[in-house]
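Re: the 551-residue chain
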Amino acid sequence: MMDTLLQTAKRNAMKYSKPKDQMFAYGTAGFRNRSDLLDSVLYRMGLLAVLRSKLTKGTIGVMITASHNPEQDNGVKLMEPMGEMLIPEWEIFATELANAKDEDVATVLQRIIASASIDTTIPANVFFARDTRSSSNTLAQCLQEGIETLHGKYSDFGLLTTPQLHYMVRCHNSQGAYGQPTEQGYYNKLSKAFLNFRKLVSSGSGDRGYSPKIIVDGANGVGALKVPQLISFLEGTLNITVCNDGTTGKLNERCGADFVKIQQRSPDGLSVIADTKCVSYDGDADRIVYFYVDEDGSFHLLDGDKIATLFAGYIQHLLTLSGLELNLGLVQTAYANGSSTRYASQQMKVPVACTKTGVKHLHHQATEYDIGVYFEANGHGTILYSKRAEELISSTCGNTSLSESQRHAASCLECLVNLTNQTVGDALADMMLVEAILYARGWTIHQWDHSYTDLPNRQLKVKVKDRTVITTTDAERKVTTPPGLQSAIDEEVAKHQHARSFVRPSGTEDVVRVYAEAGSQILADKLAYDVAIHVFNLAGGKGDMPRPPDA
C-alpha cells in the first residue's frame, strides 16, 4: 500500500516541481522564501507531516507564515505533538526532502521511513492554519494535497496566529488536559485565568497608577484580527484600540514588533498619545514589544528583556510569599541588553543563562528550571512550568495547614500558569500576562520602564559573500573565525566604558549581524560602525562599505 502511495507522491511532485537551482534550509523559523518559490516545499511538508504523525502517533501542526518577513514572502513550519518546534533530527529530513529532485521524492521518503523505523500502517492526522498573506491560500492547497497523497487526515483551521495553532495541537494531543483545541477554547482559557487573577489581587491594587488603556499595532497581520475576539471575553477590563489592522497598510511594512525594535521608533499607522501604553505584534503574533512616547516626545522601548524581568520579578515575589521552593531561572541570548542581565542577576537574584540565538535553544534551556522564563530581546518568549512546579503550586492552593497569604500567593501563581501559552511565544497571551502583573503591582508604564535603564545599543547588518566564514562560540558572543576578527572587536570595545559588541552570521541570508552597546547612543553607534568595518574587511564584505553613523 505504502509503495503505491509513494509512487503517487513522486508523480505529484512533478506537478509541484521544485524550482531549478533553488536550495532550501529548515531553521528555527522553518522554511522562508519568496512565496512563488514555495509550492514544492508546501507539498512535500504535507508528505513529511504525515510521516511525523505516524511515528509520534500524534497530531502534527503545520503553520503557513513568514512571521515578520515582508508580505511577498511566505514560509512553513512544523509542530511536534506537544506544540513544540520540530526536533532537529527532522529538520534535517525536512531540508533533504525539500531539496530532492522531483524524481527522487519517493526515494527520499523511503529513506526517511527506514531511518526512523516508521510503521506506515498507523493513521496520521495534521492540523494546519495560515496567516493573512495573499499567497497563503494557494500554499495551503499544496500542503493539503501532500497530506492527502499519503492518506493523512487533516483539519484546516483557516486564519490563526502561530501560537494559537501551537496551543491547539497541544490541547488535542493531551486529550483536553491543556485546554480545548478550538479558537474559542483558547480565548476561554486565557480570559478565565486573567479575570480570576484580577479578582484575587483587586483588593491590593486599588486605583494606583495602572491604566487599562492600550494601543495595539497589529502589524497589519493576523494578530490584529484576533484582538477584538479576545476583547469580547474580557468583560471590559481592558481598553484596547487596534491600529494597523490590515484594512489599509501592508503586512509588516513600517510597523510591527521587528520594525519598532530595530528602528527604535513608533510604527506608521498609529497615533501615539503621550504616556499611553502601546504594543506591537509581529505578522503572525508570536512576538510582542511595548513602547510609549513621553510628554517631551521621547520614544521609550520595553522589549523582550523588560518583559522577561517583569515576569521573573513578579513570579519570584509570589514564590517568596507562598513559601514554595521552586527553582526559577531566566534565559536570554547575547542580544539581551547588559543592563537587564545585571538587573536580573544582581538585584533580583534570579539565575540567568545565555544560549545561542533561536527560540528552540532558549526553550530547551528553560526546561532545566522548575520555572523557566525565556525571552529574546525581539519580544519572542514565554514561561515554562515543570510538571513538578504545576503540581506543587496546585497542592499549595488547597493546603489548609498553610497561612491564607501563602495559599493566596499560590492561587495567583496558578492563574499565571493558566494565562501562559507554554508551547511558544504568544503576543496575545504575553500581553495579558504583562497587563495582569502591572495591574497587581499598580504600576504605570513609566514605573515598569524605570525598573532599570537600558544601555544604548545599535544593530547593523553587513553584506558578505559567504556568511559561513563567521563561526562563533560562547553562545555566539565570541568569534572563532575568521582569524583576527575577535581581537579587532575586543580592541574596539576596550575604547569605551560599559561597552560590549558581538557579531554572528544570519541564519537566512548572506549577512553578518553586528550588535553593540555602550554608555551613550553616540558611542554605541560608533562602536557598531567600527566593528562593522572590521567585519567587512576580514569576512569578505560585498557591496558598499558600512556607512558611518553621521553619514
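The radius of gyration is 24 Å.
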